[in-house]
Specification:
This protein is of the alpha/beta class and 555 residues long. The protein is built from 19 helices and 17 strands. Strands 9-10-11-12-13-14-16-17 form an 8-stranded parallel β-barrel, surrounded by 5 helices. The protein has a 6-stranded mixed sheet with strand order 3-2-4-6-5-8, covered by helices on one side. α13 runs parallel beside α14.
Length: 555
């Protein structure tokens, strides 16, 4: 197939396309219109008349037109998934498809296939975003003609199935002109899940963003540090009107002074009485009630409040350790939910003082999900930046997570690739370790990782985030592979931006922990060489988009 400014193309969709398939076709038409000014792209359903070249959207199990070119059996053998991609040219017909049979896939791989075509064969870079009113962000070439004759690309499945953006907002103020651009960027760069606070999720709903998340096939984990106040509100809320602190104060942890804990903010650690016999049922029923009204959410992050604090001192809880009480309650809730909704998971955060897997025989429910933050009360936060992955591989963080895995739970990491607290403003180069980290997850059966992302300072860490889920999806991709595509957004200045990134990555090599890594870089990198390279990049860049992208990186 040859595409040109004079081409007439029909995107052929399944007879009843899903939101993801429809969006994939819309994205294809949008980008082809920019790459080939003048090209005509129309839509048709399988079996309808086709004008000109045809691009088939979706695999043979979804699209009858695709089934004329490849059988469902042959497709499944080549691309079993989950999230497998199939792109193949058949002359005047091009198939762009992804797997869709595996649980929770939601045809997102078909959308991935569109983006793969754009970057791999049409020269785009979907690396960044800016305010829509400002020139910058992605690189989309303008072409007269591109010959796609004989192209064939198959990615059988995602290498790691859990690739998560842990979406944080400063002060939980969600209103932002860049929200949709960010969600769009996540899908283009292979993030398949957003984990966020309940308050953020509720605001997403009010802003109409849940529909946009659904169109891109991104799943949702909600809860975070405001899960308990949502599902067991002390003064009631719009979902659960009961004032549990008044009707059942015994549900909350007993303090040493004889009072029950009162929630005033998101601090207080595990605030429940874990051995209360009625409490697992109450919370589980409330979660079931809520999640049936919110079908895009398949995981509840039933986390403690933040910080460290004493646990319940009641006679029953006092018989056990803090972590034993915490796991007991989480597992009991997961068991009740699993009986009615086995596909709904409870995400249990292993973090701070509730980090270490308890010794002894422990069997956890299959729908309980262990999310281990790379920080604990004793270990503190991990080091960062060694290309061989040894900042995690073989460390107590990995040993503890694998111990959790032996309980039967699914296990993942919670990472901090933009730092923590005040250090989030400083660049922390951590792209060169990601290939090793993701390969190690595959080797030992860790399902993947999420990284905390603060919306208010994205560009300081953009290359980390660009590499993160892309590498998780395809561990064959090295940092250098990513640099080649990423730096297209800087135009003629690309070589100098690549030089700066390499300098930063070489400077940070596991010498310090995450919370001081940005300071270490500032103190040890050759700043004069960095500024000189930025000046050269800016002088060479010719387009407003490239120049603005360079300025954003320099900030």
């Amino acid at each position: 197939m040859k595409l040109s400014v004079n081409s007439s193309v029909t995107a052929v969709l399944p007879g009843e396309p899903t939101k993801r398939e429809q969006f994939a076709a819309e994205e294809l038409r949008k980008y082809l219109g920019v790459i080939f000014p003048g090209i005509r792209v129309s839509f048709a359903a399988a079996g309808q008349p086709v004008e000109g070249l045809q691009i088939l959207i979706g695999g043979p199990e979804r699209n009858a037109a695709t089934a004329l070119w490849i059988s469902e059996e042959a497709f499944d053998a080549l691309v079993p998934g989950p999230e497998g991609i199939y792109i193949k040219d058949f002359g005047d017909t091009l198939i762009i498809a992804g797997t869709s049979k595996n649980p929770g896939e939601m045809e997102r791989a078909t959308l991935y296939a569109v983006y793969e075509l754009l970057e791999r064969y049409l020269g785009c870079s979907l690396a960044a975003y800016v305010n829509p009113e400002i020139a910058g962000g992605e690189y989309i070439p303008a072409c007269k003609e591109v010959d796609l004759t004989g192209i064939a690309y198959v990615k059988a499945a995602a290498d790691n199935t859990y690739r998560t953006a842990i979406a944080e907002y400063h002060g939980r103020k969600v209103e932002n002109v860049l929200n949709l651009s960010f969600i769009d960027w996540l899908a283009k760069n292979r993030y398949n899940r957003i984990l966020t606070w309940m308050k953020v999720y509720e605001r997403y709903k009010e802003l109409g963003l849940i529909e946009e998340i659904e169109r891109r096939g991104i799943r949702l984990t909600v809860g975070h540090h405001d899960a308990i106040p949502t599902f067991l509100p002390q003064r009631g809320n719009k979902y659960f009107p009961e004032h549990y602190y008044e009707t059942h104060p015994e549900y909350y942890k007993l303090l040493e002074d004889g009072t029950r804990f009162e929630i005033t903010d998101h601090f207080g650690a595990w605030v429940l009485c874990s051995r209360n016999p009625e409490l697992p049922r109450v919370i589980a029923e409330n979660i079931i009630n809520w999640i049936e009204k919110n079908p895009m959410v398949d995981t509840i992050a039933l986390w403690p409040l933040d910080g460290r604090a004493p646990m319940c001192t009641c006679p029953e809880c006092s018989k056990y350790s803090d972590i034993e009480n915490y796991v007991y309650m989480q597992n009991a809730i997961a068991k009740i939910i699993g009986k009615k909704h086995p596909d709904i998971r409870i995400d249990m955060l292993a973090y701070s003082g509730l980090f270490d897997c308890p010794d002894g025989s422990l069997e956890l429910e299959p729908n309980l999900f262990i999310d281990e933050a790379v920080t604990s009360a004793t270990l503190k936060i991990r080091t960062i930046g060694k290309p061989d992955g040894s900042c995690i591989t073989g460390t107590p963080y990995e040993e503890n997570l694998l111990k959790w895995k032996k309980t039967g739970a699914t296990v993942v990491y919670y990472d901090y690739l933009m730092g923590t607290h005040s250090c989030r403003q400083r660049y922390i180069p951590a792209a060169d370790e990601q290939q090793s980290n993701w390969k190690r997850c595959m080797e030992v059966g860790i399902s993947g990782s999420g990284t905390q992302i603060e919306y208010f300072n994205f560009w300081n860490h953009i290359f980390n985030f660009y590499c993160f889920a892309r590498t998780g999806y395809d561990t064959a991709l090295s940092m250098e592979n990513h640099l080649e595509v990423f730096t297209k957004i800087f135009g003629e200045g690309a070589p100098y931006i690549a030089q700066i990134i390499r300098m930063a990555e070489a400077c940070l090599d596991g010498q310090v922990k995450i919370h001081t890594a940005g300071l270490y870089l500032m103190e040890h990198i050759d700043k004069a060489a960095v500024y000189e390279a930025f000046d050269k990049a800016l002088a060479l860049a010719k387009t407003p988009e490239a120049r603005n992208n360079i300025r954003m990186m320099r900030l």
